[in-house]
Hints:
Layout: H1 2-123, H2 126-134, H3 139-271, H4 295-309, H5 314-328, H6 337-341, H7 348-352, H8 354-361, H9 365-375, E1 386-388, E2 396-398, E3 401-403
Antiparallel strand pairs: 1-3, 2-3
Helix pairs in contact: 1-3, 2-3, 4-5, 4-8, 4-9, 5-9
Amino acid sequence: MKKTLVRRLAGVLALCMMSPMAVYATQEKIDEVQDEIQDLQQQKEEAQQKADILSEEAGGLEGDLAAFNERLMKITQELNATEEQLEITRQNLEETGKALKKAQKEERTQYEAMKKRIRFMYEMDRDNLIEVLLSAENFADFLNKAEYITSIHEYDRQMLDRYRETKEVIAGKERELSDQEEALASLRGQQEAKKQEVAELVSDTSEHLNAARKQLAAAQSDVAGYEEKLEKQKAYEEELEAQKAAEDARRMEEIKRQEEEARRQRESQSSNGGNGSGSGKGGNSGGSAQIPHDASDLTMLAALIQCEAGGESYEGKLAVGSVVMNRVGSSRFPNTIAGVIYQSGQFSPVASGRFASVLASGADSSCVSAAGEVLGGAITVGSLYFRRNDGSIPGTVIGNHVFY
């Protein structure tokens, strides 16, 4: 009897040492890692959104730059055409200048001839003209001499008119070419201004584009960094989950061993004439007896089922509820639903706050129905633990969970 008591105390001591130091600590680490994963996921999504926005801005700037380059090309072509036009005009001006010099030379010749004619006309007064007419030998000669004098005056008048016309043409051509050259020079100045303006736009847009590309590269680097951290945290979470599963399995074996030992002790006491009533809870490995509960127990159990198995089949919901009730019936866990659910380091949704949120808003009808059936005695599995099935833990697989 004494040896049996010592073995039981040693088992309890080992279990107590393992539970707070290993099981709870590991679950707390898992909860912390899951919180970090959520934070990193949020930061990654924000960084990705920023990268997407910057990518759109960079694309827009590239489009603007292409438009500016096209505009610059068009203006450059216009400038080249203007330059060609100016060159033609310069050639025309040069030719006109030569013609002008020639006309001016002719003008001077005409002017000298006109001066001589005028001097001759003044030197040859009216009396001399009359003398010339009177010296005619006959009337026909008189008419010829009169016509000759008239022709001289007409020629002088024509020369004078031609001289005036030459001067007017030269003056008009000078004004025309001067105005044209001034207009073309003005156009060239405007085109140069446009070219400078577009060049500045291109330069400014290029600076913005380079800055946007740097920001985009930095944002993409942030996304990659968060992705790398996420992968590391997920790998670490898997390691912790495996560690937790191993700890749970050892704890489960210890509980079974102790409960088996307690059962044999009760049988021994019964065979020796004891009443075998016992004061502790026995293991609950399934059955259909209705479990005493109240409305709050139903609400809490339904909320936990939704948090842990909301996306699972109805069978999976019943199994999760059964695990809770199996713990309530076990001497190694609290003997109330609230105590089991709020036991430190056992259920991640309780630590993360998701359980409180579902509890406040109320679980869906399917989870409430499953909780009601379990409380009514529909215990579908005899397990004390469950977790996401990754193939590393033997047990009963229901949906995405393994129960052991």
